Amino acid sequence: MTEETNTISRRTILIAGGTTVGALAVLGGGFWLGTTAGKNLLPSGDATSSAAGYEPEILRSSGGKLTVDLVASYTDTTIGGKKARLKTYNGSTPGPTWIVKPGDEITVNFTNKLGEPTNLHTHGFHVSPSGNSDNVFVEVADGETFTYQYTLGTDHSAAPYWYHPHHHGMAADQVFAGLYGAIIVEDGDPIPATTERVLVMSDISLQTDGNVAGANMMSKMMGREGDILLLNGQVQPTYSSEQNALERWRIVNSCTSRYMKLSIPGGTATLLGKDSGRYAQPQQVTEFTLAPGNRADILVQFGSEPVSLSYTTVPHPDAMMMGSTTTYTDYPLAQFVPTGNTAQALAVPTSQTPGPDLRSETVANQRSFALNMPGMGGMGGMGNMNGGFTINGQAFNMDVINTSVNLGTVEEWTIINETTMDHPFHLHVWPMQVLSIGDKTVSAVEYQDVVNVPAKSRSVVRVHFDEFEGNAVYHCHILDHEDQGMMGIIEANPA
What we know:
Number of domains: 2
Strand content: 35-45%
CATH class of the largest domain: Mainly Beta
Distance between the termini: 35 Å
Number of helices: 6
CATH architecture of the largest domain: Sandwich
Radius of gyration: 21 Å
Low-confidence stretches: 1-49, 315-325, 376-387
CATH superfamily of the largest domain: Cupredoxins -  blue copper proteins
Oligomer: single chain
Structural class: mainly beta
Largest sheet: 7 strands, mixed
Helix content: under 10%
CATH topology of the largest domain: Immunoglobulin-like
Mean pLDDT: 87
């Protein structure tokens, strides 16, 4: 398939441009995109100067093992010349990048110094959800250290992943304040590239005293979006490259709510896959969209001119109600400037091995999951002003198992969006093969762990519950919605 198959309602509005936005807002179109209207997407002060590009510390496995000492704490720093007090992993935002291989054992000695409870989720990992593995029901109290252990299968998908907090009711606040980091599971047979980069996108809003701004009622309803866009914790950094380089970028959308419509002016981009999935035929793209939690594995061919990673958005509806019509087109998140060196010519792969095609498998169960925000029918089903985010009419309850599945089976899930805004649906542990998004059928084999569900539409996926007994969760990855109840517990039972 082409990238256009994944076209989403938010993206459609982005392409439409500012002249149609007001009318669509009145009609309740599915494009609830942030809180940036009328703002500069830059902090005050000397924010236009580009810093030298930074990438987080790399922690690489050796001999099949990786041990990480990870501390969550407050750190005083600056963002674009403005003071900031962030929640960080090991004193940085993003936290260190873990680079591992299929079959590795990962031990994380996690210490909480936040003054509030938290925990750790390895987003996208196909690992056990129980015990001290990817167990989001663990609570690590302030001052405590908890040791997580993850064992990757020898067939674990090589792809970009990420880690972040998942303590219910606090996930959005903690991620928005700076708690996130990338994980790379490397290929058994590396793809040749001049340079490999990890690029973590995020957004944030800061108060004048440097503290991270909290979310108001409207932002929690629509999903908060910061007025400062960051790439690896920086405002518009500049990286050095080589002429004719073939760079490999692992891009992570760690925003709590923002859909990132991206383009790469100056370069030729080939998308290898999203999330843990690989396309059978890599896709040359001019633009692509990452929902919150999505990742992209992409090759970028340089020439002799600078290349940008650019973002396009439109104003948020709540600002439009106040008369703003500001649009942002090709906002540069980062720039990559070739030096005088010329890189060796490298070929872009023309084929890859995707995951198994579940469309030929027997389906044990067909289930429907209705995403809703009840109580605001007069405003297009936006939810009630005190929360009210549900799946199948139920808000998250720690003591309730919402779905039970049997290991060894394949199920087909239809996720129905009854609201007037898009929702990115995330399933822990088990990747989803995407069959359709809205009215677009996905003909190729594509796997994602975050699948967009367009407004007033549905998406269909199949899931192979191949292993890992225990309880996990599924939820909207607009983290404010998850925190307010749009999440359920799934129980995987032995065959």
